[in-house]
Amino acid sequence: MTAAATAVLAFAACNGAQAQSVLRDAEIEQFLDDYSLPVFRAAGLPAEQIQILIIGDQTLNAFAGGLIMGVNTGLLTISDTPSQIQGVIAHEAGHIAGGHSARYDDMMAAATRPMLLSLVLAAGAIAAGAPDAGIGILGLGQTVGIANALKYSRGQESAADQAALTYLEAIGRSGNGLIESFSKMRNEQLIHGQRVNPYLQSHPLAVQRITALEERAKAGKYFGVKDSPEEIERLRLIQAKIRGFMQDVNVTLRQYPLSDQSDAAKYARAVAYYRSADIERALKEIDKLLAAHPDNPYYNELKGQMLFEYGRVAESIEPHRKSVELAPGKALLLINLGRAEAATDDPTKVADAVKNLKAALLLEPDNSFGWFELARAHGALDNEPLADLAMAESRYHEGAKPDAAKFAMRARSALKRGSPEWRQATDIIVASLGSDPATGAGGRETDEAPKPESDRRPDEVPDPQAN
């Protein structure tokens, strides 16, 4: 999974309000990878290139376009089983494999043709002295155009449904989860729209989709395959975490009362107490989980996050280190560890932070928050040129290209000409400005670039994680 916009907290939001934000969480991302990668491979898609975005929206929904798939947190919390989630993922994979987003122009053409024809006919009717007829023709053309577009969309949805069953059968999973997800959608439609015009819907009505899928799914070899108790428990833990972070704290504590001593309830309460600044009760709950499951990387990660956020930096390092050991190769966990190490006054630990942050950025080169923390670490070691270079990368991946160019020019002026870091700075300047202002060309070795207009220190730039 690559990073478009990244944070390193156990469950962190970026890009806007929480209700519609993109979230990053190593545990949830691993869950989605485990259930999506086999589906993508069965669909003949470049599985490792497809980016799944976790959307902070508590409605049961997902979307796909190009090589990007979005999964709402509501899909994760409302679903009863992993199979239901995997069924929806398979449906969205059907859209990607079918190139449906690439055929959007065809859909618009289907809508536009009758609209344009109605304009011509309406103009003729009005010119002939029949303005009422002209207006009627114009309205009819628009209605037919919209209906054509929606019919095209409904056809794509039905094709994706059938493709989903094919993929699930290929990997030995039941298609019943997809049907169950549509049953949930049907219930929503019954509650919120008793009289829905099927000809003014971009998706087929859920009841129609169930009817179309049920016969084929029941004939499948794996229809009776059920999710294991371990799979169900894993989903319950993820649901508890999402609710703990996204719901009102009091709602979570009512939903998971102290009388409930399940792991999921302890997880939800740990997050809720942490969010309500009751750090001791939060630690008590997470310590119960760690006593029973010491090798769970995500419990260790959450404990490290709690300790770090409440100023107990030195204590946070060990659980963060443990999380990295238990789940190697996770950029977010490495950044958590590096962030904690860089916040100490120990030069040895700060040097370790640089190593861990660089390892994370090899995994996610576009992680702006990782670059920001690397800038801090270099700054703590008084390595200003590398701090400026890391800050340039951070600002570039945040989309702040003028800032990126300024930091890169300042870094380049102090770096050895021709070194990898010098070339990295030059690349950022060219990518940000379109050319090298020192030469008017891109990337040639020249005299040092002029001093940037901005003299801001890296620590004077807003933290990209700050909401």
Characteristic terms for this protein:
467 residues; mainly alpha; five-stranded mixed β-sheet; 19 helices; 5 strands; 5% strand; globular
Describe this structure in words.
This protein is mainly α and 467 residues long. The protein contains 19 helices and five strands. The N terminus is likely disordered. 63% of the residues lie in helices and 5% in strands. Among the domains are: 194 residues, no CATH class; 66 residues, no CATH class. Helix 3 packs across helix 6 and helix 15 runs antiparallel to helix 16. A five-stranded mixed beta sheet has the order 1-2-3-5-4.
pLDDT below 50 for ≥5 consecutive residues: which ranges?
A: 1-10, 12-19, 134-138, 140-152, 189-205, 443-460
The residue-averaged pLDDT reads 82
Secondary structure tally, helices: 19
Question: Largest sheet, order of strands side by side?
Answer: 1-2-3-5-4
Strand percentage: under 5%
The helix-strand sequence is EEHEEEHHHHHHHHHHHHHHHHHH
Q: Which overall shape is indicated by the principal axes computed on the Cα atoms? A: globular
Alpha-beta content class: mainly alpha
Helix content: 55-70%
Largest sheet: 5 strands, mixed
Rg to the nearest angstrom? 27 Å
The count of β-strands is: 5
Measure the end-to-end span: 24 Å
